[in-house]
Write a structure and sequence with these properties.
Elements lengths: L1 H10 L12 H10 L3 H18 L8 H12 L3 H6 L1
Helix pairs in contact: 2-3
């Protein structure tokens, strides 16, 4: 890995490392201490986007799976139906 980096630098095509994930803990802690919940949400959304970009697996749901998911989310527990 080091040799690869040296080769890229010698070619003049050095890539800047992505330091965003390294400072995630510091930024989220600072926002929490300042009680800046808007900033915390922004940081978490950005971190989620970074994590999703790093995963190569893409999950697509069929229309059948989507319909089942919607149906399950709309159902209320039977205990609530009996009480009403």
């Amino acid at each position: 890995m080091i040799d690869n980096t040296v080769d890229k630098m010698s070619e003049g095509k050095s890539e800047k490392p992505n330091l965003e994930p390294l400072f995630f803990d510091l930024r989220i802690t600072k926002a929490y201490e300042e009680e800046n919940f808007h900033e915390m949400g922004r940081i978490l959304r950005k971190q989620r986007k970074i994590l999703e970009e790093n995963t190569q697996e893409e999950r697509t749901f069929s229309s059948y799976e989507k319909a089942i998911s919607r149906d399950l989310s709309r159902r209320t527990p039977k205990s609530k139906q009996n009480n009403e």
